[in-house]
Specification:
Length: 279
Amino acid sequence: MQQNGTLFTEADPEGVRRRVAGGVTTSDVVLSAHVGGNADVFPLVLGLHVPRGATVADVTWGKGVFWEKVPRGKYKLLATDLKTGTDCRALPYGDGTIDCVVLDPPYMEGLFRRSKEHLAGGGSHSAFRENYSNGEPTEGGGPKWHAAVLDLYFKSGLEAKRVLRPEGVLIVKCQDEVSANRQRLTHVEIINEYERHGLYCKDLFVVVRTNRPVVSRLKKQEHARKNHSYFLVFVKTTKKRLSSGGASASARGTASRPAGTGRPRTAAQGATSRGRAKR
Ligand SMILES: C[S@@+](CC[C@H](N)C(=O)[O-])C[C@H]1O[C@@H](n2cnc3c(N)ncnc32)[C@H](O)[C@@H]1O
């Protein structure tokens, strides 16, 4: 590490010295990909994006696993869950009153079924169902399968935006899934939708599980088995810094479409264009 006032020189890997304005040279930085559990990664996400003392509403508390390694008292924590009577689509907070919302609803379509017998995680996997859903069947009439997963993310994301103060932070946990033999990149779908509503995707963390998933009744593998999930970090913004053009472009019907292609913009494209400007 080297530093001297506002300007110093440092050598790049080829040994060429260049001038750098202030700052330090270090590898001690928060990284975007981690092998571990949610309880290991969540404190890093908070540490980078949410200042000590902030009011944080975890609206899908579950068993509070995310918070196991966060020092008690570091934040003013408001913990709710459907199991305790609070739906994350109708929060009991006023507009613009919360600094940070944490959202981790059931992320797979198997946890949205009309009958309890068909919910994922029955029998010997009941702990899975207990940890990842409220264990109740989905009401009839609403969207089904993967659309039901997205519906909950989209509606609760809008509700989170309502209660967040300007520049407030929304941390969303999600995982992609193959549904009806179709690849559904849930994290891309969430980013595109949220950015249309003025939630700028500021950061993305990849969590890689430590053990190997077991697949039952495999005949022919069609897709890579997912062993990773995401923490997405959004900022409620009024500024024009949305990677996909944002809400105003959306109103003109041009959101999510890179100029000239006519194709929806992916999260990766958004990240690349931001990366060129600033890492
Ligand atoms: C993946 S688990 C959350 C795990 C949690 N992050 C933890 O660290 O233990 C999903 C949770 O969302 C809750 N849930 C499902 N639908 C909900 C809703 N509409 N509103 C609030 N919570 C909901 C379930 O009861 C379940 O506890």
